[in-house]
Every structure is written in structure tokens, then in C-alpha cells.
Write a structure and sequence with these properties.
Elements lengths: L1 E2 L4 H8 L20 E2 L5 H17 L11 H17 L2 E22 L2 E3 L2 E2 L10 E7 L29 E5 L5 H10 L4 E5 L24 E4 L1 H29 L8 H25 L2 E22 L3 E11 L9 H19 L7 E8 L7 H8 L3 H6 E7 L10 E3 L18 H14 L5 E3 L8 H5 L4 E5 L8 H7 L23 H19 L36 E5 L2 E3 H4 L5 E6 L6 E8 L7 E6 L6 E5 L12 E8 L6 E8 L27 H17 L9
Helix pairs in contact: 2-3, 2-7, 2-13, 3-7, 5-6, 7-13, 10-13
């Protein structure tokens, strides 16, 4: 499928985002693309790589699949590297880094004799020994029964003295998980449970990270909204029972004997004392208690990012694409994120097969330790100095593109569908990157929606450093709405990926339909950022070997003799730099070649700034081969100043050689001789001998323009 470029690209180029400036180059005979294409990337190509990644993961099921520090992840890295190296189009590097990995042992929480399903918070500390019979208490900042945001436990002041040595129960919200754990630590709590606050999804698990280890921190786990509400009710019921029992004991303890004999009073005192003691025992029995064990250890693991950059293209104008390669230990991670990784591999292979070199360098990144908190991508960005960061003009992220209950989502960097969360940086140019996808989908009538631009995936470090970003996403733990089901099908009320972070995230549960939609969109985005489009040639193009339809008027009386002299004409031989980067350029003609053969021109610059290149042309019936050459980048006009050796190799004799010179403005022909200087040439200019040039003048001009449209050299 081919799509014509949209007008927004011109705006983007002005901003220097996508198309940027190119290094000084000479125009060669092979022009670049006139419209963007998906390069043939399709679902089948992605699924081929995805099957390989799946096989690697499942073969290491007993070792944690493709999680951080596993043999499965290392094998996946090797597969990515070998695939890229086989194309010959990329410089491939493996970036090693270390990460402190958390590994859990026994984690068990029992409240009021019943086991509670919990998840361990990332970066939590362990219990030194099992905690038994500890009280369960709540923050005192507010009553959360109205779900208005109370009982948050965001500071130590949100607790009273009852938190000391207790298991505290706090709601998600208002502040970070790390701040809640710090507040519980400061209040002296023995353990902390954070429950989810999503009443619309009561069984939604809460995967929390504390953001870093807290010295002597309170061991922390999380539970669902439903489990949290059950625990909350138990704590509140126990508190009411405790209050009632304490009141009963107090009243009994203050009873008076009266109206009887002393012995009767003594008996009454004894009775009320027993009642008080019973009341206190009842109050103690009403306190909700728990047993809490959390075993976890931290192991430093070495892992890797894989970085691949095109050998061709402007390496000061890098367009980057990324996906995380690691998964979770709970499952094979085929959709999350084998799917995004496989799509990058298919796109890289397609890019390597394109007929012309890229204009802008394309850099691919496969990230490690994403599931540990975006560690790999963050490490990569932080490893770059300001100069290297400045070379990256854009970043596109692909994290899950095959969800079984999928949506077609673009990272909503303009906030048109989903408001940008507070505190999220949106670098200028991000909206234009999203438009690559939305325009593509509009052209093929594919419904799509914006998704949270929240920094939840590997683009976070890039936007934090001012690099524009966008990407695609088929959904994870979000819930499909009726509107989304109308657009994409699927089941309302179910997660977008019902296998998210589960053992069932297998290749059998990946949506091929979703992959078929996303794969060409990713290929199209890579092509769009890799190539600057050239103007289409004239329609129909002028054939330089065919003379004009109308005969010369008046016709010549004698036939034109075929040139028998083998010579090279370079016109002009001296040209000012501004003219060299204009439509004028330099025209080269080789005569005395064998008709209907192919001639090759080689231009060798002697200024050290421009690359040597070749151009081919067909020899006409008159034995002449014609070429055109000019500079491309008018903004770097002075870079072209210098001499250029020209060699034309054609059948019929030895190679023909010559040269031309590009000089500064004002130093060219005619600067000091009244304008009578010129580049000259070796072809006849008058009389009947000039007729071949006159007849072909129009064709030569068109040919020269066509020859100079591109900025690329044909791949060898």
C-alpha cells in the first residue's frame, strides 16, 4: 500500500523534527521515493518473528521465561542481534547495564484467620521474621466510606499511636505508593497493605512500585478494591465491637452497692469487678489481628539493551523506534512485549531491502528491564551526553500490539481524546508524530482512538529529555467500553488484554487481526521518518533518446553525421557555488560511445566533504551519453567549493576524463572579463554539426533535472 505524503510534513520539516537538515550531498541518478509506503510490512512478517520469540520464551518456562536475568532473555537478545546483522544494513551494538532485581520467597498474609491474596510491592523490604497476632488498624486522616479520598496514609500524621507495631490498611490515591510506605515507616507500622481504589473494577490487581528501596522500610503488599473493602469492613466492625465492650466494662467497673448489709455490698463489688474484667477481655478479643510474612531479596543482574542504527543516512538527524524485549516471570510475554519487538524486527528487515539509502538515520532500540520500572530505556537515555541526545529528533514506542480484546490506540500526545496527566512533559513535535498514524489510519478508513500519554512505557525517559514521542498500543489492563467495542469488536467490560502479565500470554492468545492492523502502520511510520520525498518526474517523462515530434523548421538540407570523435564535454567547467546548488548544475556529455549501451559516470570530489558517487545513462543512437550533477543543500553552499574529477566509462574506447570546479560567488567566469567567460565544452557549436545538440536541447534540460532530483546513491 502506498500513501501520498500529507501537507503536515512540510510543517514538521520546518520545525526540524522529522525531516531535519541533510548533510551536503551530490545528486545521483537514482531518485528517492515520491510517496511513503508501508514497505510491505504485514502481520505474517511480524508473526514469523513472534513465533521465534515465543519459542525462546516457552523453552525457558522453568527459568522465568524472558524476565530480567534469565537465560530466556539473553537468548532473545541473541536472536534480535543475529536477525539485524544478517541484513547488513545496520550497526548493531549490545549495551550492558546492571540492575538490582527483587526476588520473592514466601509471602503470606492472614487476617482474622483467613488468607488474603496479595501482591508484593516492588522495592519493598522484607519482614525480619514472621509477624504474628499484630493488630490491624486504619489511618485516621478521614473516613473513606464515601470514597472521597480519605484513609490515604500519605504522611505519618495520618496515623495515631495505634499504628505502632501494627498492620496498617491504606487506600490507593493522592500520593505515590512510595510516599505511603514512607509514611507507614515513619509512623512505626510493622506492615502495610495498600488497596486499589477502582470501584468500577473491584477485582483489578494492584501492581505497585515504591520507586526505590526505603531504609528500614515497612514491608508493603497490595490487594484489589474488593479485598480492600472486605478488610476495611472487618477493621471497622472490630473497632465498633471493641468500643462497645470497653464501654460495658467501664460501666460495670463504676457500679455502686447500696441499701444493703456490708456483706451484700462486698458481694456486689465482686460481681461488678468480674463484669469489668469480662468487658476488658471482650474488648481485647474484638481487636482484629493478622499474621504477616514477606520474604524478598535483592540480586544484582547484568542485562542488555540492543541498539541498531542504519549505516546510511544522516547520523546527526536520528529518528528512533523502540520496544521492550523483556517480559514478566509469570508468563511467556508474547504480546507483552514480544509483539512490539517482532514488529520492529520486521520493519528493520523491510527497511534494509529498500532500493535507496535512507536520508535520516534510523535507530532501533530493544529495551531490557522494562518490567522492572523502565530501567533499560532510562539507562540508555541517561548514558547519552547532550550532543548525542540532540541528534535524536523523535522517538516512537510500540508496547503491545496484539491484545486479544484490542483497541487501535495512538499515544494521544495532543490530548484530543485523553487529557494529558498533570506533570507529564509533552515535547513540541509529539503531536505531529501522532499524526503520522492518525493520517495513515484515516487514509485506510481504520478507526482508532487516543490512549493515555502518561509516560507509562519506554518513551518516558525520552519525553523527560525533550525528545518528541508517540507510538501505538493495543491495550493492556484497561477495560473495553461499549464505544470501543462498536469500533473494534470484542467484549465490553473485559480487559483489552485478558492475558496481561499472566501465564496465558501465549502466541495462541495473540490477536492476528490486531497484528495485521498495526504491522503496516509501523512500517509506514519507519518509512516516513527515514525518507525525504522527492518530486515526481514529469508525466509523461521526456525520453532523451527520442527527438521532438515536430521536425526542425526549416529542416536541414543535409543529414547530420554521427559524431566519430570520442570526447567528453563538461559545461560549465567553472561554476559558482550558488549556481551549483540551483537547478543549473553541471551538464556532462560523452560522445563516441557505442549506441544503445550503458555509460557510467564517476564523480570524485577533491574537497574532502562530499562523497564520491556514480551515475549511469543509456547511450543514444547518436553515440552520446548525457549526465547531470548538482549540489543538494543550498544551506551549506560553501561545502561544495572545490574541484571534481569526472570519468565516463562507455563502450567504444578508453574511459573519458575531465573535471570541473565549484568556486565561491563572485569568483566564477565573467567576474573580471565583462561576462564573456564560460565553461566551454568540446562539442561543436555551429553549423550542421550542432544539430544533434539543438534537437536534443529540450530533452537534455529535462534529463538534467530528472537526474538531479534524488539525494541517494543506488545500493551496490
Amino acid at each position: 500500500m502506498k500513501l501520498r505524503t500529507k501537507s503536515w510534513l512540510a510543517v514538521t520539516a520546518t520545525a526540524g523534527l522529522v525531516l531535519g537538515g541533510v548533510s551536503p550531498a551530490l545528486a545521483a541518478g537514482t531518485a528517492g521515493p515520491t510517496e511513503h509506503t508501508d514497505m510491505g510490512v504485514n502481520g505474517d512478517a511480524v508473526m514469523e518473528h513472534l513465533q521465534k520469540i515465543s519459542d525462546i520464551s516457552t523453552s525457558h518456562a522453568d527459568e522465568g521465561f524472558r524476565a530480567l536475568g534469565t537465560p530466556g532473555y539473553e537468548e532473545a537478545v541473541e536472536y534480535v542481534e543475529s536477525t539485524l546483522e544478517a541484513t547488513g544494513a545496520f550497526d548493531v551494538k549490545r549495551q550492558a547495564f546492571e540492575h538490582e532485581q527483587q526476588k520473592d520467597g514466601t509471602v503470606e498474609v492472614v487476617v482474622d484467620g483467613e488468607k488474603v491474596d496479595v501482591n508484593t510491592a516492588s522495592y519493598t523490604e522484607a519482614t525480619e521474621e514472621p509477624l504474628t497476632g499484630i493488630p490491624v488498624v486504619l489511618p485516621v486522616d478521614d473516613d473513606n466510606s464515601d470514597l472521597a479520598g480519605g484513609q490515604l496514609g500519605c504522611s505519618a500524621d495520618d496515623y495515631d499511636e495505634s499504628a505502632e507495631g501494627a498492620l496498617v490498611l491504606a487506600s490507593r490515591g493522592e500520593c505515590s505508593f512510595g510516599e505511603k510506605a514512607q509514611a507507614a515507616t515513619d509512623a512505626g507500622a510493622a506492615a502495610l497493605i495498600i488497596y486499589n481504589n477502582d470501584a468500577d473494577n473491584p477485582d483489578e490487581e494492584l501492581n505497585a512500585t515504591l520507586g526505590g528501596r526505603i531504609e528500614n522500610g515497612t514491608p508493603t503488599v497490595t490487594v484489589t478494591y474488593k479485598v480492600g473493602q472486605d478488610l476495611l469492613s472487618k477493621v471497622e466492625d472490630a473497632a465498633e465491637a471493641e468500643g462497645a465492650a470497653e464501654n460495658g466494662g467501664t460501666e460495670a467497673g463504676s457500679g455502686l452497692a447500696g441499701g444493703g448489709e456490708a456483706s451484700e455490698a462486698d458481694d456486689a463489688d465482686e460481681t461488678t469487678g468480674d463484669e469489668a474484667e469480662a468487658g476488658n477481655d471482650a474488648a481485647a478479643a474484638a481487636v482484629l489481628t493478622a499474621d504477616f510474612t514477606l520474604e524478598t531479596e535483592y540480586v544484582t543482574s547484568t542485562t542488555w539493551n540492543v541498539i541498531a542504527e542504519t549505516k546510511a543516512g544522516d547520523h546527526d538527524n536520528v529518528q528512533m523506534f523502540g520496544a521492550h524485549l523483556d517480559g514478566v516471570a509469570e508468563g511467556p510475554g508474547v504480546n507483552d512485549n514480544g509483539s512490539g519487538s517482532a514488529a520492529l524486527l520486521a520493519s528493520a528487515e523491510a527497511l534494509a531491502k529498500q532500493p535507496t539509502d535512507v536520508d535520516n538515520a534510523i535507530r532501533f532500540g530493544w529495551w531490557g528491564a522494562e518490567e522492572e520500572g523502565l530501567v533499560g530505556s532510562t539507562h540508555y537515555v541517561e548514558s547519552l551526553d547532550d550532543a548525542e541526545l540532540g541528534k535524536i529528533k523523535s522517538y516512537m514506542n510500540f508496547d503491545m500490539i496484539g491484545s486479544d480484546n484490542y483497541i487501535v490506540g495512538t499515544l494521544d500526545s495532543d490530548g484530543s481524546d485523553v487529557p494529558i496527566p498533570d506533570g507529564v512533559n509533552v515535547p513540541e513535535g509529539s503531536a505531529e508524530l501522532e499524526k503520522v498514524f492518525t493520517d495513515y489510519f484515516a487514509d485506510i478508513d481504520q478507526p482508532n482512538v487516543g490512549t493515555d500519554f502518561s509516560g507509562r512505557s519506554d518513551y518516558q525517559a525520552f519525553i523527560d529529555n525533550g525528545i518528541p514521542a508517540s507510538g501505538l498500543f493495543s491495550g493492556a489492563d484497561g477495560t473495553k467500553t461499549a464505544e470501543e467495542a462498536e469500533m473494534f469488536g470484542g467484549t465490553v467490560g473485559e480487559k483489552h488484554d485478558t492475558n496481561y502479565h499472566q501465564p496465558t500470554d501465549t502466541i495462541e492468545n495473540v490477536s492476528k487481526e490486531s497484528i495485521d492492523i498495526f504491522a503496516p502502520a509501523i512500517g509506514f511510520a519507519v518509512h516516513t521518518l527515514a525518507y525525504d520525498l522527492t518530486d515526481a518526474p514529469t508525466d509523461p517523462p521526456t525520453d532523451p533518446t527520442t527527438p521532438p515530434t515536430d521536425p526542425t523548421d526549416p529542416p536541414t538540407e543535409t543529414p547530420t553525421e554521427a559524431p566519430d570523435e570520442r570526447a567528453l564535454s563538461i559545461d560549465p567547467k567553472t561554476i559558482e557555488a550558488p549556481d551549483f546548488v540551483s537547478e543549473k548544475g553541471v551538464q556532462v556529455a560523452a560522445t563516441g560511445c557505442t549506441a544503445d549501451s550503458t555509460a557510467t559516470m564517476t564523480v570524485t570530489p577533491n574537497n574532502g566533504k562530499i562523497e564520491k558517487f556514480e551515475q549511469t545513462a543509456e547511450v543514444g543512437a547518436d553515440g552520446t551519453a548525457r549526465f547531470g550533477v548538482r549540489g543538494l543543500d543550498a544551506s551549506m553552499v560553501d561545502s561544495y567549493i572545490g574541484t571534481y574529477d569526472v570519468t565516463v566509462d562507455c563502450e567504444g574506447g578508453n574511459p573519458l576524463t575531465g573535471s570541473f570546479e565549484v568556486v565561491a560567488e563572485g569568483d566564477g567566469p565573467g567576474a573580471g572579463d565583462g561576462g564573456n567567460g564560460g565553461g566551454g565544452g568540446d562539442l561543436p557549436r555551429t553549423g550542421n554539426e550542432a544539430l544533434p545538440l539543438i534537437l536534443s536541447a529540450g530533452a537534455l534540460i529535462v534529463l538534467g533535472l530528472a537526474m538531479t532530483l534524488g539525494s541517494r546513491r543506488r545500493r551496490s
